Amino acid sequence: MHYDPIKQTLGKTIGHNLFLRKLFYRILDLLLLRAWYVRKEIFRWEENQKGSINVLDAGSGFGQYTYLLARNFKKWKILGVDIKQEQVDDCNAFITKAKLGNARFEWADLTRFNHPTVFDLVISVDVMEHIETDIEVFRNLYQAMSDGGMLLVSTPSDQGGSDVHDNQSTSFIEEHVRNGYNITEIQNKLKAAGFKKTIARYQYGWPGKLSWRFSMKYPLKLLGVSKVFFFVLPLYYLILLPICLVLNTLDINISHKSGTGLIVKAFR
Question: Coil, helix or strand for 146?
Answer without folding.
Answer: strand
